[in-house]
Every structure is written in structure tokens, then in C-alpha cells.
Amino acid sequence: MQTIEKISNLRGEINLWRQQGLKIAFVPTMGNLHQGHIALIEKAKLVADKVVASIFVNPMQFGVNEDIGNYPRTMAEDQQKLVAGGCDILFTPTPQIIYPKGLDKQSYVEVPNVSEGYCGESRPGHFRGVATVVCKLFNIVQPDVACFGLKDYQQVQVIQTMVEDLSMPIEILPVETVREPSGLALSSRNNYLNEAEKKIAPALSENIQWLAQAIKTNKDFIGLAKKAARNIDETGMKTDYIHICHARTLQSASEDDKELVILAAAHCGKARLIDNLIVNLD
Ligand code: PAF
Q: What spacing in Å lies between the alpha carbon of 227 and ligand 1's midpoint?
């Protein structure tokens, strides 16, 4: 695996692949890789001839009160995992390379509707930062396909909408969430959990599962979601939101909707955990 920092060098390598007619898959990440990221690399390898991953801790998607300086950086271990996973090129640009004019003078991508609410409400500006950096990375790599984890369900919808709205010729492949045996979704943020918090954190996915069962026979979506939030809070976590949404628009689900997703986020100690479950009521 080659590790490349400069855009021109990356483009040179990718052009060679393009001349050979090879199909290219892209896996953007912020590093601190776990098995969930490796599942993205494995999926990418299945669908393409060459795999490019990126590690870039994107300052534009962090809020003013979110400490980007403390975001875990584990480049050497990440490189080993990517080599083992079969990644061909790792792109590791600096903030200066991605935002040479600084964040304030940078053009940005705003994806309406699906960016609003849930994590978009709790983390103002977050999805603008995600859409902007993913758009830039797509323009730099120009992949045929890009893989994203479904743990960040709202992010996947934001990126899918951006690709459709801006006619980007890239197929978005969502990849299933990888979980601990306890049901806890794998996340870099799990590193912030202490032993006691690790025991209560699975209550987030348990209550999403409970809610998914409950809505099969009871259409009081709001009342049921409130009960799930109370259950989560009783464990010592603090629910940020738990909501039953239309799976594609992310609008509040109506009684007639069949393709649903339950989106949830909760604070557990220093970690803000997110999770979701797709529910088909047909
Ligand atoms: O999911 C992530 O790790 C990030 O939001 C992404 C897609 C790499 C953009 O910075």
C-alpha cells in the first residue's frame, strides 16, 4: 500500500489505473480504524479492482465546543490495518492541502432537509462540513463507487442526496454496522467509555430494538419513542434524541409509512453514541 499526502501524486497514480480501465472504490475515514472501517474496505475490494482510503480529521465538521485536538490519531496502527485489509492507496492530506484558504474562505456544500434535525440539530454545521469534505475528496479521487457505514445513517442520506442533487457519477454503497457481541455499534467514540459505561452503552441498541418491535403493533410513534428515551435515561445515559423517521426523507414517520428508520443518539459519560435500525413494516 502506498501512503500519499499530495493531491497531484494521488491523481498521477489513479490516472495510471484509469488508463488500464480499472474500477476504483473509495473509503473516506477520519482514522482510528476499527472493524467497522475494515468492513468498508472489504466491501470496496469486492466491488472494485483498486481501493483508495483516506484519513483526514476534517476540521469543518467539528463544532466550536467539540475538541478536534483530542480526536484519536493512530496513523501507524491504521496503516497496518489497511495493509491487512488489502487497501491499495491511503490518502493522508493535511488541513492545509484540503483547505488552503482556511475554513472561512472555503466554498461549501449544503444539503437541505436530510441534514436538518437529529445530529444536524445537535451538531450545527456538522453535515455542511461532511458534505463539503466528501465532495472535495470525491473530486480528488474520482472513484466509481464509495463505501460508507450505515452506523452514520443520516450521513449516508446526506451524501446520497448530494450525489443525486449534484449529478455526481459515483455509486454510494452503504455497509452494515459492525457490532460488539453486546450489540453496541463499533465507533471510535467507544474508546471514551470506561468499564462501567461499556456495560450500560448497549442499552441504546437494546431500546432501538425494543422500539422496532413495539411499532409493529402500536402506531403511537411519539409516545413509544418517549418511553424508549426514558428507558435509556434510566440506565444513566442521557438521550439526545430517539425518533422514528421515514427511511429516505428522514421526516417524522406517518402511520402509513412502511420503510422506516429509528435514529437515536445518547450521551454515555464523555462519549456521544449514535445508532439506528431500519424497520420495514410490510
Ligand atoms: O464518517 C466519517 O468518518 C466522516 O464523517 C467522513 C465521511 C470521513 C467525512 O469526514
A: 31
